[in-house]
Amino acid sequence: MLPLLPIRDLVVFPYMIVPLRVTRPVSMEAVAKALEADERLCFLVAQRDASDDSPSAQSFYRTGTIGMIMRMRKLSEGGLKVLVQGLCRARISKFVSESPCYRVRIERGNDKPLPRSLGIEALLRSVRGNIDKLSGLGKTIQPELSMVVQSVDDPGRMADLVASHLTLKVPEAQELLELDEPVQRLTRVNQTLEKEIGIMEVQSQIQNRAREEMSKTQRDYYLREQLRQIKQELGDSDVHGEEMEELRTKVSRAGLSEEARTEADKQVRRLDQMHAESAEAGVLRTYIEWLIELPWNVSSEDMLDLETARRILDEDHYDLEHVKDRILDYLAVRKLRGGAHGPILCFLGPPGVGKTSLGRSIARAMGRKFVRISLGGMRDEAEIRGHRRTYVGALPGRLIQAMKQAGANNPVLLLDEVDKLGSDARGDPSAALLEVLDPEQNCNFRDHYLGVAFDLSKVLFIATANLPETIPAPLRDRMETLRLSGYAEEEKLAIAERYIIPKQIAEAGLSANEIVIGRDVTRRIVGEYTRESGLRELERLIAQLARKIARRVVEDSARVVAGGGAATRGGPVITAEELPTFLGPPRYLPEERHRAAEVGTVNGLAWTPYGGEVLLIEAQTMAGKGSLTLTGQLGDVMRESAQAALSFARAHALALGLSSEFYAGREIHIHVPAGGVPKDGPSAGVTMACALVSLISGIPVRHEVAMTGELTLRGKVLPIEIGRAHV
Predict the structure, then answer these.
(1) Is residue 130 part of a domain?
(2) Both 394 and 374 in a single domain?
(3) Which residues form the domain of 94?
């Protein structure tokens, strides 16, 4: 039975001599109890938690070392300092007492003598050789250890001796102490030695490389300093040298890729050897500045909170749920996968529906920088890929310029009006965009000006277009198309009240106390002054209205100052009756649509790239020779639709209760009003057929119904295809 001396962060092995500082009362009592006996023995065991000042019986490992206290002295600041030597390993069988110190009953563990074998001898030699290797690599090892291990032939004693000189963590050392088999312990010690040798070799290689690099840097510094002193003695200015040193510093801090760093160092060396005033030096200097100012490894942190992103998208845009859901889908995938390729989105729709502003909102929702590139009218491939450095005015392409403008390598990059790209003898920009918009290729985009690869895979590309037909098919195939249709009247009212009216009132310098635009006013502006799919004309009209009120406010204020009287302006509320005063007479009248069911008159639907329209189709019959007259500036396809509608009506005359000879001696005239506007397309077939059937049967068509669709001779109405969307 021995007193237990707990140790915080150390495992004592047999044959190990170690000084210990004892300050805790329970440990000082254990030392005192050990010194009372003639053998001066105690049981040394490590704590599981080194920070525990009051350990319980469960806080100790069960395997430890029987140690003998060789010396003890008291410290002036309190506590004891003892020198202990490990004798043999032992295991706790029972805790006898816990106060004033722990006393335990132990079971000694003695290694059984093993017969000599080739395997044990090889293991002993391997351990001795590894110790010599560690010493040669600079590991601090006591000299006497190398001499002692040469004469030790017992595997257990060899393992304990070497383990006591290794730097091991407590769990690892405790696991080694608990191994009862001597050969297993020595094998584990040998593995630890080989691991330490590998670490020391790698550390030595790193130190050698750092030393070589430092030597090269110091040599370059001395040579440049000597060159600077020589120039000072000759009276030459050292501005060029300072500029070169500054460029080298910027290159080292720019975070360039390996290829770009090699090219930058090469061009800096060339520039250093040139005359500072030469034209080529100016070109090289500009090129190096472009390299070091690009965001090679600078990224803005993505905001991947779906609730926050949803709130931002809802704040900036009304409705557009399918687009918002697509962005939230992208953020969810990005949050789960981390490095997912960004999609190439293409917003397709008429002008003024919010394509560009939606891209800006996406950037804000993701916490990224936003950059817009206008592609309308671009005809030169160099605008995308950059100009080669063969003349003074060469510059990178618009993409590299946008990356520099963003200051990050993962912005939201809006390619505006991608359907309006052109081409000429200088190349096809749309073909150059094929590489840019391919997630499998744009990670190594090579601008002609830079000449090195730049990673565009982190960029979220968004394209906008009005018409899908004018986008080249290979380019359109690389993009995910999201259609933004025009806004209905109620949607325009909601958007005007939430966004447009407050914005235009603020831009006119007014406040909510100086102008109030009610819903009836907004509804009348939408219905009588605008006829568009988007919101630009509506915003212009509201801005015009706000400017008129601002002028009235300024004039009233000046009149009050001049006359000293009260303002004559009549209240801040704008009424619908005042709109003609501010905006002029209504541009569109509601009487354009017929208000009652009529025979031979049908509402048709027309599609345009900038929205839809309702147009009338009228049919009339009169005495004649059985011919069909078409007016209203109709195209060939629409004329063929009229012929097909007439053939269908004639073929089904009996089913409609008509005489099969109704067409004889009659002339049928089909007219589409607004003859100054060309009209064409197959989707007027069903409308013309209904007008003809209504005419010949005398049954009026409901005035609140409009129709569209291509009609076959068999009477089938085909779906309408707009681009790639079927309705």
Answers:
(1) no
(2) yes
(3) 2-108
Is the Cβ–Cβ distance between 727 and 719 less than 8 Å?
yes
> For all residues of the chain together, what is the average pLDDT?
82
Please answer whether residues 495 and 535 qualify as being in contact, where contact means their C-beta atoms are separated by less than 8 angstroms: yes
Task: Tell me phi and psi for residue 677, to 5 degrees.
Answer: -110, 120
> Quick one: 465 and 385 in the same domain?
yes
E strand or H helix at 41: strand 41-46
Of the residues 539, 563, 583, the one at which a domain ends? 583
Q: Are residues 390 and 426 in the same domain?
A: yes
With respect to residue 15, please indicate whether it lies within any of the assigned structural domains: yes
Residue 375 corresponds to which amino acid? L
Tokens of 707: 């129709």
What is the helix, strand, coil percentage profile of the chain, to 5? 45, 20, 35
Residue-wise pLDDT tens digits, 392-447: 788 899 999 999 999 998 899 999 999 888 877 777 888 888 888 888 888 888 99
Torsion of CA 672, 673, 679, 683, to 10 degrees: -40
Q: How far apart are CA 538 and CA 529, in angstroms?
A: 8
User: Does residue 196 form part of some domain?
Assistant: no
Residue 295: pLDDT band (50, 70, 90) is very high
According to DSSP, the β-strands at 103-108 and 80-97 are antiparallel
Number of H helices, E strands in the chain: 23, 24
For the chain, what is the radius of gyration of the CA atoms?
45
Q: Which helix (H) or strand (E) holds 89?
A: strand 80-97
